[in-house]
Protein: Ribosomal RNA small subunit methyltransferase C
Organism: Neiella litorisoli
Amino acid sequence: MSFSLIDASQVLERNLSVFQNVKCLIVNNPGDQLSAALDTVGATSHSFSYHFGYHQQHCQQLPESHCHFGTEVPEHWGQFDAVILYWPKEKPLATLLLEQLLQCCHDSAVIYCVGGNKEGIKSAAAVAKKIGLRSNKLDAARHCSLYALPLASLANKPASKPLSSYQKQFAIEWRDHVIELVTLPGVFSANHLDAGTELLIAEVNDELGSKTLDFGCGCGVVSTVMAKQNSQRQVYAVDVNAFALLATELTLAANQLSAMVYPVTGVNDISQRQLTAIVTNPPFHQGVKTHYQVTEDLIAKAPQLLVSKGQLLLVANRFLQYPDLLEKAFTSTNRRSETSKFVVYQSRSC
C-alpha cells in the first residue's frame, strides 16, 4: 500500500518497524498520511499541532479526541511509547517542545526527530545534548535525517517547566504610550519589534474605524496598538500558530486590553464581515521556504470582508510583488509610508 507522504515522512516510512504496536504521539506533522502508514504496524496515533492548518488535516484522518491544537500536549492523553517530532527551524522552539515532550513519555520511550537537512534538523543532536538526551542518527534520505532520542539515556527526567518560563517580555514606545510585548519561542520577531511592524503601527489612527482585524498577529503588537488607540474599537486577532495566539493574549493582558483572538489557516477562516479595516504584516515564509499564497488570497478576498470604503493596511518588503495584486483587487491603492526596505500600502474599495 502506498501513502501520500512528504519527504521527512518517507524517511519514517522506511523505519516503520520501530513503531510496531506502540502508542505514538505525532507532533506538527503537516497533515500527510503518516498516521495511516503507522496504522499498518499497529501503532495508535495521536496528533499534537501548533499549526492550525496541520491540525485541521489531522482531524480528517484521526478521531477528534486524538487531535489537539495548542501549545501543550493534553495531560489526559497519558504517557506515550514513542513521539515523532517534525523538527522546527527555531532552536528555542525545539528546546521547548523537547522539554515538554519528556513529560508525556514513558521512561523507556523514544523521541524520534525528523526534518529536512536545510530546515534545522542538523541541530537536533546539540539541542538534545543540552537537555541530557543522547541522540542516534537512524537514517537519512531525500535530503532529510531521522534521529532517535531514547529517554533511557537520561540520568534524571527534568521536572516539568511551566510555559511561562519560556516567555520573554520587552517594552516599546508608541507615541505617548509604553506598550508591553510578551513573546514565546517560534513567534515572529520574538525578541524585538521588527522594522516592518514598526512602520505599520505608525499608521494606526482613527481612520481604521471601529471594527478591525490583525491578520497574522504574531505577538500581538498591532492588535494592542489598535485597541490602545481607540478603546471603543472591536479588535480581532488571527494567526495560524498557537504560540502566536497565546503570545497575543498575554500581550493584550499585560496592557490591560482585550480582543477576540482565534486561529485561522488563511482568509477563508475569518468569521467576521463588515470590517472597517484589516491591518497586516503578512507572513511570506513557511518554514525556510518562501510562500506567498496566504497573502495573495488575503488581498483577493479582503474586499468581501470590508465595509464600503473599508481599508487594507499592509506592510511588505519592497521586493514583494503586491502592488499589482492590490490594484487589481481594490479601487485605489497608495503608499502611506516607506523606507529603503519596507512599504505600507493602503487599499480601499468603493
Summary: Residues 239 and 245 are 6 Å apart (CA to CA). The chain has two domains: 7-153, 167-348.
